[in-house]
Amino acid sequence: MTAQIISGTEIAKQIREELKQEIAELKDKYNVIPGLATVLVGEDPASQSYVSGKEKTSLALGIYSERHDLPAETTQEELLALIGRLNKDPKIHGILVQLPLPKHLNETEVLYAVDPKKDVDGFHPVNVGKLMIGEPDYLPCTPHGIQQLLIRAGVKLDGAEVVVVGRSNIVGKPIANILLQKKEGANATVTVCHTRTRDISFHTKRADILIVAAGRPKAITADMVKEGVVVIDVGVNRIGKTAEGKSILVGDVDFDAVKEKAKAITPVPGGVGPMTITMLMMNTVRAAKQAAGIA
Ligand SMILES: NC(=O)c1ccc[n+]([C@@H]2O[C@H](COP(=O)([O-])OP(=O)(O)OC[C@H]3O[C@@H](n4cnc5c(N)ncnc54)[C@H](OP(=O)(O)O)[C@@H]3O)[C@@H](O)[C@H]2O)c1
């Protein structure tokens, strides 16, 4: 069996088209323009490129975008003051603080300072708690993107054995939580593995759906999965450069070998990656609708 490739690029494109229409309608009917502010401290090239991508996508969809690039020596007080102003600004519905912050800044305090109603990343403890009890306002972007990939690829989640490899706060724990909910597009039986799991293969071999967010190339090999599994590879690992100097990216799964056993699999790049920014846009639209009292 050679797996169906679940293309995040294609599914993200579909969702962006839907959002574009929704945004145009919001403007026409209600005179509401969703607004996203990005905050970047310092000059990390990867972070700069992520923020540029978010800005570009916002503009392409008709979202008002405001970019705050601050010098690396910005103090905690200055950063908190900016977040305070953005919290009060009615043009801004979503605030995205690009992580990681420089070491001298207290990341937790900064994330907690964002108004939970504008926390389109879904990292504020209020939003984490709301997800846990099944009443989320904003789902964190990467795990939400994974859920959408599965739903839109027609993968049956109800009753499925889902195994998640990785327990980070941004991917592993929230995707486990999302798929565990008593809801359509969820209702799975979820197991979470990590570096202290005794026998990872025992779990991964039972998975109908295997979600891997370990940050280790080839953490999952073909002998660790069953025939017919659906694999979502979240990992992004830079393993070298091409002759032209471009980074070579691979996921956490031994793609070439596992695709011969899997029913469906996401590629890296072009799988989960394109979904993350798209879900940020979806959250920003949701925030604008909530602020305007539109259901
Ligand atoms: N495409 C996207 O949009 C996107 C978004 C976010 C992240 N990512 C990528 O996804 C990967 C994971 O990100 P993250 O932020 O969740 O990483 P992280 O914070 O480093 O967490 C990795 C998790 O995987 C576990 N782990 C590591 N190696 C393992 C192994 N061999 N077997 C079992 N568990 C293992 C760790 O266990 P312990 O807790 O025991 O240490 C940890 O819980 C990274 O490659 C990252 O670049 C992609």
Helical amount among residues, as a percent range? Answer: 40-55%
- How many E strands? 11
Distance between the termini: 44 Å
Order of helices and strands: EHEHEHEHHHEHEHEEEEHEH
* Ligands (ions, cofactors included): NADP nicotinamide-adenine-dinucleotide phosphate
Description:
This protein has 295 residues and is an alpha/beta fold. The model has no long low-confidence stretch (mean pLDDT 97). The relative contact order is 0.17. A six-stranded parallel beta sheet has the order 1-11-8-7-5-6. It has a three-stranded parallel beta sheet with strand order 3-2-4, sandwiched between helices. It has a two-stranded antiparallel sheet with strand order 9-10. A hairpin with a 5-residue loop joins strand 9 and strand 10 (247-250). The protein has ten helices and eleven strands. The chain has helices at 8-30, 45-61, 76-88, 107-113, 125-132, 141-152, 172-180, 200-204, 255-258, 273-292, and strands spanning 4-5, 35-41, 64-70, 94-97, 161-165, 189-193, 209-212, 230-233, 237-241, 247-250, 264-265. The radius of gyration is 19 Å and the shape is globular. It binds NADP nicotinamide-adenine-dinucleotide phosphate (NAP). NADP nicotinamide-adenine-dinucleotide phosphate is lined by residues 142, 165-168, 170-172, 193-196, 200, 213-216, 219, 234-237, 272-273, 276.
